[in-house]
Hints:
In chain A, 73% of the residues lie in helices and 2% in strands. By secondary structure, chain A is mainly α. In chain A, helix 2 (36-61) crosses helix 11 (248-261) and helix 12 (266-285) packs antiparallel against helix 13. Chain B is of the alpha/beta class. Chain B folds into two domains: 1-81 and 170-253, Rossmann fold (3-Layer(aba) Sandwich), CATH 3.40.50; 91-167, no CATH class. Chain B is 37% helix and 23% strand. Chain B is built from nine helices and ten strands. The longest helix of chain B has 16 residues, at 183-198. The radius of gyration of chain B is 19 Å and the shape is globular. The chains are: A mainly alpha, B alpha/beta, C mainly alpha.
Amino acid sequence: MSVSDPGRGRSLLWTALLLIVVFAVVPALLASAGRSYLYQVANLIMIFSLLSVSMHLVTGVAGLLQLGHAAFYGVGAYCAALLATHFKLSIGITLPAAGLAAGLVAFLVALPTMRLVSIYFAVATLGIGQMLYVVMLNWVPVTKGPNGILLFGGLQFLGFDLSKPAPAYFFVATVVSVSIYVLHRLSHSYYGNALRALREDDQCADAMGIDTARLKLESFTVSGFFAGVAGALWAHTAGYISPADFNFNVSILILSMVVLGGLGSLPGAIVGAVLLIGLPELLREFKAGDYRNIIIGLVLFGAILFLPKGLIGETSALDLVRRQFGRGRSIPGHEGGVGWK
Amino acid sequence: MSEPFLSIRDLGRAFGGLKAVDGVSADIARGELVGLIGPNGAGKTTLFNLISGFTPPSSGEVHFKGRRIDGLKPDEIARAGIGRTFQNLRIFPNMSVFDNVSVGAIGAERIGMLSAFTGRRGVSERISQRGLAALQAVKLIDDAEELAANISYGKRKYLEIARALAMQPDLLILDEPAAGLNETETKALADFIASLHADGMTIILVEHDMKLVMSICRRIIVLASGRKIADGTPAEVKADPAVLEAYLGGDDA
Amino acid sequence: MDYYLQQLVIGLSLGMVYALVAIGFTLIFGVLNVVNFAHGEIYTIGAFAGLLLFTSFAPPLAAVILIVLAVGALAGVGLERLAFRPFRRFTDEASLKSRAMREATLMSSLALSIVAREAIELIFGSQFQAVPFKLLLNNPIKLGPVTIVDGDLVILGTSALMLFALQYVLKHTRVGLSIRAVSNNALGARYVGIDTNRTIAWTFAVGSAMGAVAGILVGLYYGAIFPAMGFSPGIKAFVAMVMGGLSSIPGAVVCAMIIGVSEALSTIFVASVWQDLVAYAFLIVTLIFFPRGIFGGVRERV
Lengths: 341, 253, 302
């Protein structure tokens, strides 16, 4: 609450550390390793961090179990890829366009399904995600069906050529950091508290004068928007997309990241993404790539059974803060600056 | 007389063939503390849900501050200025005490997404102030950071009231606040409700604990089988044969 | 006209298969109010178990169906042990059917379904399994103007038989009565001495047995046995359950038939790759416009 709030200083420190890692340490390591494949892995980790943090807003904070997130990721990716191949547009335009397209689709999906609660909402998102997937797979004249779309021309932004691995990495890192910052502000604010109230007890939130339907709609749309942004990043950095990148398994992968990190915890969502993308890649180094999905399944199962609050559950994170800083007078959820709670 | 503060006109609600609330009318003036009592199954909670919009009425009207509010959604009614608590304690267990209370203020301020980016200025500042004031009022300020699930049962009761107070409602409806409290705690709660009333809050108190209602309410409405059977001072109600009949005549079954 | 009739028959046998899978969903939803996401994998396990039996021992079809029933039942009990029972720490009605419980078990069954599917894929590979040609239920039979295959008859016959058997089990056996008791009132059932855990395990056994048989029947009908085969019928059966009003077995069966027939008839108008959209459209329309299922009936807030 007060300016001398110790928690705030700590969170600034954490943010600074994270930014140093993302913008200095990792690129330095990547450059010394000198393998462009590792840049791809790093980009994938960042893109999935954005996907899991955007799902965190809907599933972790607002408590709406979302089983079709990959579809919005796909809408963004296809939107960006089509604009880039047909109109030769650069990522400066395709990125926001992809976000808006995915956000619009999410809004249209949310409009009729918002009054569904709990698993019925989850199943509706699954159904809609599958419908979008079927469209990507079979609307051959536009999406080229299972063959996917190749993007030529590399990554251009404001006339700069970012197609080399290192500039592309910095571009992805910047977009993902800004996006996650926005999502962080949304979830760690009074607006986020309103969303948490929905998760805890939506009828009770109603009685507090909270317009639950509007909040669900907004959070779902924003989450879709950032999934679309992630899709554009993927399309432009990978240079090739196909429907298999956006099927049900990918939705489950993103959900596993959120659950593993701890529902409701934004740093947890990032940790989940780093682990679930990074570990299988590490395993690939040891020629164990075949076990990737089975490990994801086991990790998800283990997380639900043994870590109901995840690695960095929201509540356990709070406890951690308290243990470290004593019982200060700071009011959680009202930090002014950037930083993780 | 001008338009009454809260006016319930011939309000009714049937579930299937059963009339849970059957043609209840009552006017409540600003600043009143009214007790609502009745045997089990008398329709107290249903009446409550009709006023706060959780159950749509099948007949009748509710007017609040000159505006018709029946048929509105619960959140619209809450923003019109009616705060409520729930019979079976419904706090947000995985949020801190302060965050719980902030929700009341958030609802009343009707914040939008952009408020998340304005930092401490403007609406966020007002929400903090309201939340802290409400916690101060119920003396929970020292537990502000505690997880709501970790505080004692008695404190949770006050937390729920504080959350409703943070809405700065014009009318506060308390649904059995003393349920589960021991005698000392009930006494303290009675004093607290009385002090809220003394500060000018209009309160409707639904309560099982007769002693609590009789001690602080100057007006009592008695429901039985969905109908209003008495409305008057504690002395009048106690002497009313219909009330005695309702309580002793085995209406509980 | 003949084409329509032919599609109708195909749709009916497709619908019967969905019905067999949907019954498992419905039974399990009835006792626990949870969605068992691994139900589709039971169907896959049934198909693989059947294929293995055929290729190693070449027993008659009826024997295979009986063994697959047993395999499905065992798989169901194992699934319940791993993905559902660990979360059932309290047995009162409220926590048995609570929202947290539903979401935890939804995700745990989802996780196990991934593990099962991937394990099958590691062992057998992700592609279609070679089904010996003579096993395929694909021999044409001429019925007046319509040509169907013997698979249609086998599926319709076996399914009908199993539906009657299920009715018998539910109405006239001790296990069936306790399943119905627990699904009506779990607490009450406990008070009259029914072992809830046992009954839930039985429910999984009965429901999974039917799903597993559906798997082998379809595998032989289409000759398509592969690790991810359970996903699509699983979703469609789920849709049938939702349309049927969640805990009504006749409702689920009728809706499964509606979905099967609509899918088969949809190929008259659009390319068959789009037929999956039919079930998803049914799902969304049902959830939005008929939250109590298309036959109405009592249902909590959805």
